[in-house]
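Q: Make up one entry.
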Amino acid sequence: MKPFEYFAPATLYEACHLLAAHKGEARVIAGGTDLLLKMKAGALRADPKAIVNIKRLHELRGLADRQSVIGIGALTTLEELRGSPLVRERLPALAEAANTMASVQIRNLATVGGNLCNAAPSADLAPILIALEAVAVISSPSGGRRLPLDEFFVGPGQTVLTPGELLLAIEVPLPAGRSAYLKHSPRQHMDIAVVGVGLALKLEADRCESARVVLGAVAPVPWRARRAEEELTGSRLNPERISRAASLAAEEAMPIDDVRGSAWYRRRMVEVLTRRGLMSLMRI
């Protein structure tokens, strides 16, 4: 590991200005469960000249019930997300996604913001949060901005964040329908997803008013299967239509071959998990 400067700002303003001053050569650390391992392995695109520890920033902490929106601070740990009565009651699919991740020890360190900003194609929180129409709240020295989470990722390990910007929180509208996260991995827990599928449906009787189908680990970024969504939206759902949507989702996936699974296998699992999840949500 190469030498670097270390900063522990006490305010959000200070943190953003430190990041801006280093012009992309500083990295943020919170739990450190990804960053430190990559630094030790020399797996980063460029060695950081500075590390900015944001653990002292109270603005990034906490879960908030804001009537129609649940606010999730970027420093919320995966274990807090998994165990929160608020999340388990209002966003159960998100709590279940957190429950599939890592071990208790890691979940008590790893943060929501870290999982998203690491921008791994296999990140478990991204597909279900995008399916739930989450919004990223971003702070910067000039103020800040908000954008849909499905516009946050631009490539493996890459987000829209510019030097000086920091992910402050995620806001999740309370779902008007049913949602689910399905994950396939060699082990049920503590393993990276080979395929992840986030689903959200708004239903009127057995008619689908809107649908979100979001795929993880099968494209450079979390991927909305828009043709599958169109197949479901505005229609009465039955096993045949669900099977067509699942097949379309598999066609839209862009998987690669790697040590955890072949492209063919991943595409097949997208179809299986999408169909299984949709039928479960429809209780067919």
